[in-house]
């Protein structure tokens, strides 16, 4: 949906209407804004708590504390809020006198909530979990599973995407639950959809923003907010999605490097060289002087990490504000980090290259991917067999273990298969491993 002048409008983009509760929309001011309520209800939710036992990159648990999905999400939310508040301050100065200018004060809260929820849909065992699910259908599913599904429904499975699954968790009315899912505000929901189009447009990268089952919900949200829709069916991103993405990029890259240092995958000198690369030559001497006051190498790297995040937050906020017009027209290309100052962008690229070479292919990480692939593949095989053949004795036993909120008895095959993926993607690493062992007879109940 386009506005009259082909651009999006902050007056519409910031909306505190709640999905499923539109008729109860209250314009009155309260102690907490609706955007702050989004944040609070996420913090207290079960899907968010389960992130504490989901692998971020390195195996869990361990004697050395590294990030899990929950700590990562909390840090992304903190960084996102700071970046959004910096951008809001500059935007409010620019748009002083506009009737909607006071709405910009809510940007930080919207982004903080969106950042908290951006990883809710990621399956267990790190980033390979999405690939394990999608390749199960594309490599193992074959015609038996494809039969009876539309082209888009099949594409949902062969391109399974954690971002689309997050949108589903937040918006889908699971059995016994209320309409609207989490009943989040429209603006917070739109701000997590990095790839605002369906799976038929996923392309070679397999990225998309919502399943066929949630496409009508996204279209309703986009229409309300005035998000631009292109001729090919793709939508422009909600502008705040760029800030959520940048906060995720910053935390993902910098914190993975800090974790790799703690695990001795990267040396102290190696990390110092990487992180001081974000600063001009004349500032690096001061950084080394400050680090010299700290004896603990981990504290030295922690100090550098905080300085790098501060620089990147300020730089990305600048990029967002300077490119506001192209973002509102849906014409901005790439990420905020891509458009950062030359010294920051080059330092980030060096970190990314080293991370791929030494971190994401490290034995710690590959071991998790191998084990996770085996565990999740087995669970999918077993549960899909059960929902497709519920009359069998073993199927009845298996389906009795599936939480009631998942509609495994639906007459619709697509819904039944989605219910399996809802169950498996919501599992923690520990639960998936324990279920795998019990189903294989490796552990038995006490007798």
Question: What's a quick, concise take on this entry?
Answer:
The protein has helices spanning 10-13, 34-43, 46-50, 69-94, 107-117, 128-146, 151-158, 162-171, 186-190, 215-225, 240-262, 268-276, 281-292, 297-322, 324-328, 342-359, 363-388, 393-399, 413-425, 429-439.
Note down, in words, how this protein is organized:
The structure is a single chain. The protein is built from 20 helices and no strands. The chain has helices spanning 10-13, 34-43, 46-50, 69-94, 107-117, 128-146, 151-158, 162-171, 186-190, 215-225, 240-262, 268-276, 281-292, 297-322, 324-328, 342-359, 363-388, 393-399, 413-425, 429-439. Helix content is 58%, strand content 0%. The protein is globular and about 70 Å long. The model has no long low-confidence stretch (mean pLDDT 91). The chain is mostly helical and 447 residues long.
The description of the largest β-sheet is: none
For the record, give the distance between the C-alpha atoms at the N and C termini, rounded to a whole number.
62 Å
Number of continuous helical runs: 20
Helix content: 55-70%
Q: Which outline best applies?
A: globular
What's the Cα radius of gyration?
Answer: 23 Å
**Low-pLDDT residue spans:** none
Mean pLDDT over the full residue set: 91
The number of strands is: 0
Order of helices and strands: HHHHHHHHHHHHHHHHHHHH
Strand content: under 5%
